[in-house]
Amino acid sequence: MSEVMRNFPNEFLWGGAIAANQVEGAWNIDGKGISTADIATYKKNLSKGDYAKHNAVDEQQIKDAMASVSTDEYPKRRGIDFYHRYKDDVALMGQLGIKALRFSIAWTRIYPHGDETQPNEAGLAYYDRLIDALIEQNITPVVTLSHYEMPMHLVNKYGGWSSRQVVGFFERLCVTLFERYKEKVKYWITFNEIDSIVRHPFSSGGIIPHRFENVEQAVYDGLHHQFIASAIAVKHCKEIIPDAQIGCMLTSLLTYPHTCNPDDVFAAHWNNQFNYFFTDVQVRGAYPKYIQRYFNDKGIEIKLEEGDEALLYNNTVDFISFSYYNSFVTSADSEGLETVSGNTMGGIKNPYLPVSEWGWQIDPLGLRIALNNLYSRYQKPLFIVENGLGAYDKVEDDGSIIDDYRIQYLRAHIEQMHEAILDGVELMGYTLWGIIDLISYSSSEMEKRYGLIYVDQDNDGNGTLERKVKKSFSWYKNVIEDNGL
Fold it and tell me: Where is the active site (predicted)?
Protein backbone atom coordinates (compact mmCIF):
# COMPACT_ATOMS: atom_id res chain seq x y z
CA MET A 1 0.00 0.00 0.00
CA SER A 2 1.34 3.45 -0.88
CA GLU A 3 2.26 6.07 1.72
CA VAL A 4 -0.67 8.24 0.60
CA MET A 5 -3.07 5.39 1.24
CA ARG A 6 -1.53 4.57 4.61
CA ASN A 7 -1.63 8.15 5.88
CA PHE A 8 -4.33 10.77 6.05
CA PRO A 9 -4.45 13.65 3.50
CA ASN A 10 -1.53 16.05 3.91
CA GLU A 11 -3.83 18.99 4.72
CA PHE A 12 -5.88 17.02 7.26
CA LEU A 13 -6.91 19.17 10.24
CA TRP A 14 -5.97 17.16 13.34
CA GLY A 15 -7.26 19.07 16.34
CA GLY A 16 -9.38 19.45 19.40
CA ALA A 17 -12.65 21.10 20.37
CA ILE A 18 -14.04 23.15 23.26
CA ALA A 19 -17.03 25.43 23.86
CA ALA A 20 -16.92 28.88 25.45
CA ASN A 21 -19.59 28.13 28.04
CA GLN A 22 -17.81 24.99 29.24
CA VAL A 23 -14.29 26.36 29.63
CA GLU A 24 -14.08 30.15 29.87
CA GLY A 25 -15.60 30.98 33.24
CA ALA A 26 -15.34 34.76 33.92
CA TRP A 27 -19.10 34.79 33.45
CA ASN A 28 -19.72 38.35 34.62
CA ILE A 29 -16.55 40.31 33.91
CA ASP A 30 -15.47 42.63 31.10
CA GLY A 31 -19.08 43.43 30.30
CA LYS A 32 -20.30 39.88 29.65
CA GLY A 33 -24.04 39.34 30.01
CA ILE A 34 -25.79 36.33 31.54
CA SER A 35 -26.47 33.45 29.15
CA THR A 36 -28.64 30.35 29.18
CA ALA A 37 -25.55 28.31 30.12
CA ASP A 38 -24.98 30.49 33.18
CA ILE A 39 -28.17 29.22 34.82
CA ALA A 40 -27.44 25.51 34.27
CA THR A 41 -27.09 23.80 37.64
CA TYR A 42 -25.17 20.72 38.73
CA LYS A 43 -27.51 18.33 40.50
CA LYS A 44 -25.88 15.58 42.52
CA ASN A 45 -26.95 11.95 42.69
CA LEU A 46 -28.92 11.82 39.46
CA SER A 47 -28.62 8.71 37.34
CA LYS A 48 -26.09 8.93 34.55
CA GLY A 49 -28.74 9.05 31.83
CA ASP A 50 -31.14 11.46 33.52
CA TYR A 51 -30.30 14.36 31.23
CA ALA A 52 -33.86 15.71 31.19
CA LYS A 53 -33.65 16.56 34.88
CA HIS A 54 -30.15 17.97 34.47
CA ASN A 55 -31.39 20.38 31.81
CA ALA A 56 -34.87 21.17 33.14
CA VAL A 57 -35.63 24.80 33.98
CA ASP A 58 -38.51 26.34 35.88
CA GLU A 59 -39.42 29.91 36.75
CA GLN A 60 -38.01 29.72 40.26
CA GLN A 61 -34.68 28.41 38.99
CA ILE A 62 -34.51 31.21 36.44
CA LYS A 63 -35.42 33.84 39.03
CA ASP A 64 -32.86 32.52 41.51
CA ALA A 65 -30.13 32.27 38.89
CA MET A 66 -30.72 35.76 37.52
CA ALA A 67 -30.43 37.19 41.03
CA SER A 68 -27.41 35.12 42.11
CA VAL A 69 -23.74 35.96 41.61
CA SER A 70 -22.57 32.58 42.91
CA THR A 71 -20.57 30.09 40.87
CA ASP A 72 -21.05 27.24 43.37
CA GLU A 73 -24.39 26.09 42.05
CA TYR A 74 -23.75 27.04 38.42
CA PRO A 75 -20.56 25.29 37.27
CA LYS A 76 -20.49 26.71 33.75
CA ARG A 77 -20.01 30.14 35.30
CA ARG A 78 -16.59 29.08 36.52
CA GLY A 79 -15.66 26.65 33.72
CA ILE A 80 -11.96 25.87 33.97
CA ASP A 81 -10.91 29.56 33.96
CA PHE A 82 -9.80 29.33 30.33
CA TYR A 83 -10.58 33.07 30.05
CA HIS A 84 -7.55 33.88 32.18
CA ARG A 85 -5.42 30.80 31.41
CA TYR A 86 -5.84 30.60 27.64
CA LYS A 87 -2.22 31.51 26.87
CA ASP A 88 -0.81 28.60 28.85
CA ASP A 89 -3.53 26.25 27.59
CA VAL A 90 -2.92 27.22 23.97
CA ALA A 91 0.82 26.78 24.53
CA LEU A 92 0.11 23.22 25.72
CA MET A 93 -1.99 22.64 22.60
CA GLY A 94 0.95 23.91 20.58
CA GLN A 95 3.17 21.32 22.27
CA LEU A 96 0.58 18.70 21.39
CA GLY A 97 0.94 19.74 17.77
CA ILE A 98 -2.72 20.12 16.86
CA LYS A 99 -3.44 21.78 13.53
CA ALA A 100 -6.85 23.23 14.48
CA LEU A 101 -8.87 24.24 17.52
CA ARG A 102 -12.62 24.35 17.23
CA PHE A 103 -14.03 26.80 19.78
CA SER A 104 -17.10 28.98 20.12
CA ILE A 105 -17.56 32.67 20.70
CA ALA A 106 -19.88 33.57 23.57
CA TRP A 107 -22.69 35.76 22.23
CA THR A 108 -22.98 37.49 25.61
CA ARG A 109 -19.36 38.65 25.49
CA ILE A 110 -20.01 40.49 22.23
CA TYR A 111 -23.62 41.62 22.77
CA PRO A 112 -24.37 41.13 26.49
CA HIS A 113 -28.16 41.42 26.12
CA GLY A 114 -28.24 40.38 22.48
CA ASP A 115 -30.27 43.31 21.16
CA GLU A 116 -27.72 46.12 21.50
CA THR A 117 -26.67 48.02 18.40
CA GLN A 118 -22.99 48.30 19.35
CA PRO A 119 -20.73 45.41 20.39
CA ASN A 120 -18.80 45.13 23.65
CA GLU A 121 -15.21 45.95 22.74
CA ALA A 122 -13.78 44.11 25.75
CA GLY A 123 -15.35 40.88 24.54
CA LEU A 124 -14.00 41.29 21.04
CA ALA A 125 -10.56 42.12 22.45
CA TYR A 126 -10.52 38.83 24.37
CA TYR A 127 -11.14 36.83 21.19
CA ASP A 128 -8.53 38.96 19.41
CA ARG A 129 -6.01 37.72 21.97
CA LEU A 130 -7.18 34.10 21.83
CA ILE A 131 -7.11 33.92 18.04
CA ASP A 132 -3.69 35.56 17.91
CA ALA A 133 -2.39 33.05 20.48
CA LEU A 134 -3.65 30.18 18.32
CA ILE A 135 -2.08 31.57 15.17
CA GLU A 136 1.23 32.04 16.98
CA GLN A 137 1.15 28.29 17.69
CA ASN A 138 0.26 27.50 14.05
CA ILE A 139 -3.18 26.35 15.15
CA THR A 140 -6.02 27.08 12.72
CA PRO A 141 -9.08 28.66 14.41
CA VAL A 142 -12.41 26.94 13.64
CA VAL A 143 -15.14 29.14 15.09
CA THR A 144 -18.65 28.08 16.04
CA LEU A 145 -21.05 31.03 16.04
CA SER A 146 -23.66 29.52 18.37
CA HIS A 147 -22.86 26.69 20.79
CA TYR A 148 -25.55 25.98 23.39
CA GLU A 149 -25.86 29.49 24.78
CA MET A 150 -27.62 32.75 24.07
CA PRO A 151 -28.36 35.90 26.07
CA MET A 152 -30.99 35.34 28.78
CA HIS A 153 -32.33 38.79 27.90
CA LEU A 154 -33.42 37.41 24.52
CA VAL A 155 -35.04 34.46 26.27
CA ASN A 156 -37.02 36.56 28.73
CA LYS A 157 -37.97 39.44 26.44
CA TYR A 158 -38.48 37.70 23.09
CA GLY A 159 -38.98 33.99 23.80
CA GLY A 160 -35.60 32.88 22.51
CA TRP A 161 -35.36 31.52 18.98
CA SER A 162 -39.15 31.15 18.79
CA SER A 163 -39.12 34.86 17.87
CA ARG A 164 -38.25 35.93 14.34
CA GLN A 165 -36.69 39.09 15.79
CA VAL A 166 -33.80 37.03 17.17
CA VAL A 167 -32.69 36.30 13.59
CA GLY A 168 -31.78 39.95 13.14
CA PHE A 169 -29.87 40.06 16.41
CA PHE A 170 -27.89 36.98 15.42
CA GLU A 171 -27.21 38.47 12.00
CA ARG A 172 -25.68 41.51 13.70
CA LEU A 173 -23.44 39.22 15.77
CA CYS A 174 -22.29 37.31 12.68
CA VAL A 175 -21.47 40.43 10.68
CA THR A 176 -19.54 41.86 13.63
CA LEU A 177 -17.45 38.69 13.91
CA PHE A 178 -16.89 38.24 10.18
CA GLU A 179 -15.70 41.83 9.84
CA ARG A 180 -13.48 41.60 12.90
CA TYR A 181 -11.79 38.31 12.06
CA LYS A 182 -11.96 38.19 8.26
CA GLU A 183 -8.18 38.11 7.96
CA LYS A 184 -7.62 35.48 10.67
CA VAL A 185 -10.51 32.98 10.64
CA LYS A 186 -11.27 30.98 7.51
CA TYR A 187 -13.37 28.14 8.97
CA TRP A 188 -16.78 28.86 10.50
CA ILE A 189 -19.68 26.73 11.79
CA THR A 190 -23.12 28.27 12.23
CA PHE A 191 -25.03 26.30 14.91
CA ASN A 192 -23.65 23.56 17.10
CA GLU A 193 -25.79 20.40 16.73
CA ILE A 194 -28.70 22.38 15.28
CA ASP A 195 -30.93 19.28 15.55
CA SER A 196 -30.69 19.38 19.34
CA ILE A 197 -33.37 22.07 19.65
CA VAL A 198 -36.00 19.33 19.34
CA ARG A 199 -34.49 17.42 22.29
CA HIS A 200 -33.50 20.24 24.63
CA PRO A 201 -35.26 23.44 23.53
CA PHE A 202 -33.87 25.66 26.29
CA SER A 203 -30.13 25.10 26.04
CA SER A 204 -30.23 24.91 22.25
CA GLY A 205 -32.90 27.48 21.48
CA GLY A 206 -33.67 29.54 24.56
CA ILE A 207 -37.21 28.13 24.54
CA ILE A 208 -38.68 27.53 27.99
CA PRO A 209 -41.37 24.87 27.41
CA HIS A 210 -43.88 25.87 30.09
CA ARG A 211 -44.08 29.40 28.67
CA PHE A 212 -45.69 28.13 25.45
CA GLU A 213 -49.17 26.75 24.91
CA ASN A 214 -47.88 24.62 22.02
CA VAL A 215 -44.21 23.97 22.76
CA GLU A 216 -43.73 21.69 19.74
CA GLN A 217 -44.83 24.48 17.42
CA ALA A 218 -42.53 26.90 19.26
CA VAL A 219 -39.60 24.51 18.83
CA TYR A 220 -40.08 24.16 15.08
CA ASP A 221 -40.59 27.92 14.78
CA GLY A 222 -37.26 28.27 16.54
CA LEU A 223 -35.62 25.70 14.28
CA HIS A 224 -36.90 27.49 11.17
CA HIS A 225 -35.50 30.76 12.47
CA GLN A 226 -32.14 29.05 13.04
CA PHE A 227 -32.21 27.68 9.48
CA ILE A 228 -32.86 31.20 8.20
CA ALA A 229 -30.17 32.65 10.47
CA SER A 230 -27.70 30.01 9.26
CA ALA A 231 -28.41 30.87 5.61
CA ILE A 232 -27.98 34.58 6.36
CA ALA A 233 -24.67 33.81 8.08
CA VAL A 234 -23.51 31.85 5.02
CA LYS A 235 -24.46 34.76 2.76
CA HIS A 236 -22.57 37.34 4.83
CA CYS A 237 -19.56 35.08 5.30
CA LYS A 238 -19.12 34.59 1.56
CA GLU A 239 -19.52 38.32 0.93
CA ILE A 240 -17.16 39.47 3.70
CA ILE A 241 -14.61 36.60 3.61
CA PRO A 242 -14.70 35.16 0.07
CA ASP A 243 -11.91 32.68 0.81
CA ALA A 244 -13.60 31.28 3.94
CA GLN A 245 -15.49 28.01 4.31
CA ILE A 246 -18.63 27.87 6.41
CA GLY A 247 -20.46 24.73 7.47
CA CYS A 248 -23.37 23.36 9.44
CA MET A 249 -23.19 20.88 12.32
CA LEU A 250 -25.25 17.80 13.07
CA THR A 251 -25.44 15.37 15.97
CA SER A 252 -24.87 12.04 14.25
CA LEU A 253 -27.48 9.70 15.75
CA LEU A 254 -26.87 6.56 13.71
CA THR A 255 -29.63 4.06 14.49
CA TYR A 256 -29.79 0.31 13.85
CA PRO A 257 -32.97 -1.84 13.79
CA HIS A 258 -33.35 -4.18 16.75
CA THR A 259 -34.28 -7.07 14.45
CA CYS A 260 -34.82 -7.70 10.74
CA ASN A 261 -38.56 -7.36 11.29
CA PRO A 262 -39.59 -4.80 8.64
CA ASP A 263 -41.33 -2.77 11.34
CA ASP A 264 -38.03 -2.45 13.23
CA VAL A 265 -36.17 -1.68 10.01
CA PHE A 266 -38.61 1.10 9.19
CA ALA A 267 -38.37 2.52 12.72
CA ALA A 268 -34.59 2.76 12.32
CA HIS A 269 -34.99 4.16 8.81
CA TRP A 270 -37.25 6.91 10.11
CA ASN A 271 -34.86 7.83 12.93
CA ASN A 272 -31.98 8.11 10.48
CA GLN A 273 -34.05 10.04 7.96
CA PHE A 274 -35.24 12.47 10.63
CA ASN A 275 -31.59 12.99 11.63
CA TYR A 276 -30.80 13.94 8.02
CA PHE A 277 -33.67 16.44 7.91
CA PHE A 278 -31.50 19.13 9.49
CA THR A 279 -28.66 18.74 7.01
CA ASP A 280 -31.09 18.34 4.08
CA VAL A 281 -32.27 21.90 4.67
CA GLN A 282 -28.80 23.40 5.10
CA VAL A 283 -27.03 21.40 2.38
CA ARG A 284 -29.78 21.00 -0.22
CA GLY A 285 -31.50 24.29 0.55
CA ALA A 286 -35.12 23.20 1.06
CA TYR A 287 -37.42 21.34 3.43
CA PRO A 288 -37.64 17.71 2.27
CA LYS A 289 -41.00 16.16 1.35
CA TYR A 290 -40.87 13.55 4.10
CA ILE A 291 -40.70 16.22 6.81
CA GLN A 292 -43.62 18.07 5.27
CA ARG A 293 -45.72 14.94 5.80
CA TYR A 294 -44.45 14.75 9.39
CA PHE A 295 -45.49 18.36 10.00
CA ASN A 296 -48.91 17.74 8.49
CA ASP A 297 -49.45 14.70 10.71
CA LYS A 298 -48.37 16.71 13.78
CA GLY A 299 -50.35 19.84 12.93
CA ILE A 300 -47.15 21.92 12.75
CA GLU A 301 -47.11 24.89 10.41
CA ILE A 302 -43.82 26.45 9.32
CA LYS A 303 -44.35 30.17 8.82
CA LEU A 304 -42.43 30.95 5.64
CA GLU A 305 -41.94 34.64 5.02
CA GLU A 306 -41.43 36.04 1.54
CA GLY A 307 -37.92 35.26 0.41
CA ASP A 308 -37.28 32.45 2.90
CA GLU A 309 -37.25 29.68 0.31
CA ALA A 310 -34.85 31.55 -1.97
CA LEU A 311 -32.62 32.43 0.98
CA LEU A 312 -32.31 28.78 2.03
CA TYR A 313 -31.78 27.57 -1.53
CA ASN A 314 -29.14 30.15 -2.48
CA ASN A 315 -27.06 29.99 0.71
CA THR A 316 -26.16 26.39 1.38
CA VAL A 317 -23.10 25.37 3.40
CA ASP A 318 -19.64 24.47 2.12
CA PHE A 319 -19.11 21.48 4.40
CA ILE A 320 -20.92 19.30 6.94
CA SER A 321 -19.45 19.01 10.40
CA PHE A 322 -20.84 16.60 12.94
CA SER A 323 -20.40 15.01 16.34
CA TYR A 324 -20.22 11.26 16.79
CA TYR A 325 -20.04 9.53 20.15
CA ASN A 326 -22.23 6.44 19.94
CA SER A 327 -24.87 4.61 17.95
CA PHE A 328 -28.43 3.63 18.86
CA VAL A 329 -30.84 0.74 18.42
CA THR A 330 -34.59 1.10 17.99
CA SER A 331 -37.64 -1.14 17.66
CA ALA A 332 -41.24 -0.69 16.66
CA ASP A 333 -42.08 -2.28 20.03
CA SER A 334 -39.50 -1.76 22.76
CA GLU A 335 -41.61 -3.00 25.67
CA GLY A 336 -39.55 -5.23 27.96
CA LEU A 337 -36.27 -4.55 26.17
CA GLU A 338 -33.21 -3.31 28.09
CA THR A 339 -32.45 0.34 27.39
CA VAL A 340 -29.39 2.58 27.61
CA SER A 341 -28.80 6.31 27.20
CA GLY A 342 -26.13 8.47 25.67
CA ASN A 343 -25.63 12.03 24.43
CA THR A 344 -29.04 13.16 25.78
CA MET A 345 -30.74 10.31 23.89
CA GLY A 346 -32.00 6.87 24.80
CA GLY A 347 -32.46 3.58 23.01
CA ILE A 348 -32.35 -0.18 23.21
CA LYS A 349 -29.16 -1.78 24.47
CA ASN A 350 -26.99 -3.21 21.72
CA PRO A 351 -25.65 -6.57 23.02
CA TYR A 352 -22.71 -6.42 20.62
CA LEU A 353 -21.27 -3.16 21.96
CA PRO A 354 -19.46 -2.22 25.19
CA VAL A 355 -20.59 0.85 27.10
CA SER A 356 -18.69 3.68 28.77
CA GLU A 357 -18.87 4.48 32.48
CA TRP A 358 -21.73 6.83 31.60
CA GLY A 359 -23.60 4.15 29.68
CA TRP A 360 -22.79 5.40 26.17
CA GLN A 361 -22.45 2.56 23.65
CA ILE A 362 -19.01 2.48 22.02
CA ASP A 363 -19.23 1.79 18.29
CA PRO A 364 -16.18 2.76 16.19
CA LEU A 365 -17.48 0.99 13.06
CA GLY A 366 -20.60 3.13 13.38
CA LEU A 367 -18.43 6.17 12.66
CA ARG A 368 -17.37 4.66 9.32
CA ILE A 369 -21.01 3.91 8.54
CA ALA A 370 -22.06 7.46 9.47
CA LEU A 371 -19.29 8.95 7.31
CA ASN A 372 -20.25 6.85 4.32
CA ASN A 373 -23.95 7.59 4.73
CA LEU A 374 -23.43 11.35 4.96
CA TYR A 375 -21.01 11.48 2.04
CA SER A 376 -23.17 9.28 -0.17
CA ARG A 377 -26.17 11.51 0.55
CA TYR A 378 -24.52 14.89 -0.04
CA GLN A 379 -21.09 14.56 -1.73
CA LYS A 380 -19.89 17.44 0.45
CA PRO A 381 -16.68 17.57 2.51
CA LEU A 382 -17.16 16.22 6.04
CA PHE A 383 -15.53 17.37 9.26
CA ILE A 384 -15.72 15.38 12.53
CA VAL A 385 -15.71 18.17 15.10
CA GLU A 386 -16.63 16.16 18.20
CA ASN A 387 -15.71 12.62 19.22
CA GLY A 388 -14.32 11.42 22.50
CA LEU A 389 -14.71 9.39 25.66
CA GLY A 390 -16.07 10.77 28.91
CA ALA A 391 -14.54 8.82 31.80
CA TYR A 392 -13.26 9.01 35.36
CA ASP A 393 -9.51 9.68 35.41
CA LYS A 394 -7.22 8.81 38.32
CA VAL A 395 -4.11 10.77 39.19
CA GLU A 396 -1.45 8.27 40.27
CA ASP A 397 0.89 8.83 43.20
CA ASP A 398 3.61 9.99 40.80
CA GLY A 399 1.21 12.50 39.18
CA SER A 400 0.69 10.51 35.98
CA ILE A 401 -2.72 9.79 34.43
CA ILE A 402 -2.75 6.48 32.58
CA ASP A 403 -5.87 6.74 30.39
CA ASP A 404 -5.32 3.72 28.17
CA TYR A 405 -9.11 3.37 27.84
CA ARG A 406 -9.24 6.78 26.12
CA ILE A 407 -6.38 5.88 23.79
CA GLN A 408 -8.17 2.65 22.88
CA TYR A 409 -11.40 4.57 22.13
CA LEU A 410 -9.67 7.23 20.02
CA ARG A 411 -7.48 4.75 18.15
CA ALA A 412 -10.45 2.60 17.18
CA HIS A 413 -12.40 5.59 15.87
CA ILE A 414 -9.44 7.05 13.98
CA GLU A 415 -8.87 3.67 12.33
CA GLN A 416 -12.47 3.72 11.09
CA MET A 417 -12.04 7.30 9.86
CA HIS A 418 -9.15 6.08 7.72
CA GLU A 419 -11.24 3.21 6.41
CA ALA A 420 -13.92 5.73 5.40
CA ILE A 421 -11.33 7.81 3.54
CA LEU A 422 -10.28 4.64 1.66
CA ASP A 423 -13.99 4.16 0.92
CA GLY A 424 -13.87 7.50 -0.91
CA VAL A 425 -15.19 9.85 1.79
CA GLU A 426 -13.80 13.41 1.62
CA LEU A 427 -12.85 14.12 5.24
CA MET A 428 -11.42 17.54 6.16
CA GLY A 429 -10.39 16.96 9.73
CA TYR A 430 -10.97 15.64 13.21
CA THR A 431 -11.21 17.78 16.36
CA LEU A 432 -11.65 15.46 19.31
CA TRP A 433 -13.84 16.49 22.24
CA GLY A 434 -12.61 18.01 24.42
CA ILE A 435 -8.95 18.64 24.10
CA ILE A 436 -8.85 19.71 27.78
CA ASP A 437 -11.09 18.65 30.68
CA LEU A 438 -14.15 20.90 30.86
CA ILE A 439 -17.60 21.23 32.43
CA SER A 440 -19.98 18.66 30.96
CA TYR A 441 -22.70 20.12 28.77
CA SER A 442 -25.37 17.62 29.71
CA SER A 443 -24.88 17.42 33.47
CA SER A 444 -22.61 20.36 34.40
CA GLU A 445 -20.28 17.94 36.18
CA MET A 446 -16.48 18.08 36.02
CA GLU A 447 -15.51 14.50 36.79
CA LYS A 448 -16.81 13.20 33.48
CA ARG A 449 -13.53 13.94 31.74
CA TYR A 450 -12.82 13.99 28.00
CA GLY A 451 -9.53 15.84 27.81
CA LEU A 452 -5.99 14.88 26.94
CA ILE A 453 -5.07 17.61 29.44
CA TYR A 454 -6.22 17.08 33.03
CA VAL A 455 -7.62 19.98 35.05
CA ASP A 456 -7.49 19.76 38.84
CA GLN A 457 -11.08 20.57 39.73
CA ASP A 458 -13.91 18.45 41.10
CA ASN A 459 -17.68 18.60 40.64
CA ASP A 460 -18.01 21.15 43.45
CA GLY A 461 -15.34 23.46 42.06
CA ASN A 462 -12.62 22.43 44.50
CA GLY A 463 -9.07 22.16 43.20
CA THR A 464 -6.03 24.11 42.08
CA LEU A 465 -6.97 24.21 38.36
CA GLU A 466 -3.46 22.92 37.67
CA ARG A 467 -3.07 21.36 34.23
CA LYS A 468 -1.42 17.95 33.74
CA VAL A 469 -0.96 16.03 30.51
CA LYS A 470 -2.38 12.50 30.36
CA LYS A 471 -0.87 9.49 28.63
CA SER A 472 -3.29 10.13 25.75
CA PHE A 473 -1.58 13.50 25.17
CA SER A 474 1.66 11.84 24.06
CA TRP A 475 -0.24 9.25 22.06
CA TYR A 476 -2.24 11.85 20.09
CA LYS A 477 0.91 13.93 19.58
CA ASN A 478 2.47 10.93 17.83
CA VAL A 479 -0.67 10.37 15.75
CA ILE A 480 -0.49 13.96 14.50
CA GLU A 481 3.25 13.86 13.87
CA ASP A 482 2.82 10.69 11.78
CA ASN A 483 -0.36 12.05 10.13
CA GLY A 484 -2.33 9.04 11.29
CA LEU A 485 0.23 6.47 10.25
Answer: 386
Determine the Cα–Cα distance for residues 264 and 267; give it in Å rounded to an integer. Answer: 5
d(CA 288, CA 317): 16
- φ and ψ of 458, to 5 deg: -105, -175
What is the reported pTM? Answer: 0.96
CB 166 within 8 A of CB 125: no
385 alpha-carbon distance from chain centroid:
8
Cβ 406 vs Cβ 414: under 8 Å: no
Asked if 386 is an active-site residue, the reply is: yes
Q: Do 261 and 329 touch, CB atoms closer than 8 A?
A: no
Rg (CA), the chain: 21
- Buried b / exposed e over 45-66, threshold 16 CB at 10 Å, is eeebbebeebbebeeeebeebe
Instruction: Tell whether the model's pLDDT for residue 476 goes beyond 80.
Output: yes
Task: Give the tens place of pLDDT for each residue, 231-290.
Answer: 999 999 999 999 999 999 999 999 999 999 999 999 999 999 999 999 999 999 999 999
Choose the catalytic residue: 24, 73, 386, 445. 386
CB 236 within 8 A of CB 228: no
The CATH-assigned architecture of domain 3-481 is: Alpha-Beta Barrel (3.20)
The whole-angstrom separation of Cα 102 and Cα 269 is: 31
- CA 341, 363, 418, 137 dihedral sign is positive
Q: For residue 355, what is the DSSP state?
A: B
